[in-house]
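To whoever is on call:

I kicked off a structure prediction for a single chain this morning and the downstream step that reads the tokens threw a length-mismatch warning. I double-checked the sequence; it's 173 residues and nothing unusual in it as far as I can see. Pasting both halves so you can look.
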Amino acid sequence: MDCINCGIRFIRRIIARLRPALLMSETTGTLAAGIKAIILQTRPTKIISVTANGKALEETELAFAIHKPEATGEPKKFYLTGTQTINFYPTPTEPTPCTIRTVDDIAELAWEDNSPLLTEFDDFLVEYAAIRLSVGNEYDMTQESQLMANIVTQIQQILIPPPVGIVVKRYWS
């Protein structure tokens, strides 16, 4: 089961890097005046975007906000504290609708659970688990690396197919 859970994380990381919208969750709400933070229900592994009043906010470091922590106005930036808290900067002076798009962490599977991945990725999950189980049996690490690279390449081809070919008429001078 550990190999299956590792495989799911391995495949989700590839998807999160190449096509995060496939794993995206969206949290919407209204930030009350004078409140600068929202605590998300789940821990995000990746923040895709944060908007306030329909405008995209720029991610910033915590050190920037500490420079003038009392600043108020329309939020222009956001920063993460802890694993689930999104802070807005400056602190809004009026109710502010906001949307947070994330790729959320997932719970590990138990024996009776189903894969949270698309069925298209189940073959890669089985291959990953078989490779991981073989490593404990003195499996050649060179072959393991090649097989893992093959899995990554196949997932990339599904998520980002190559461009359509273009036929160009020849030009002779």
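Update from on-call: the warning came from a stale cache, not from the record. Cleared it. Sanity check on the structure: The first helix runs from residue 2 to 18.
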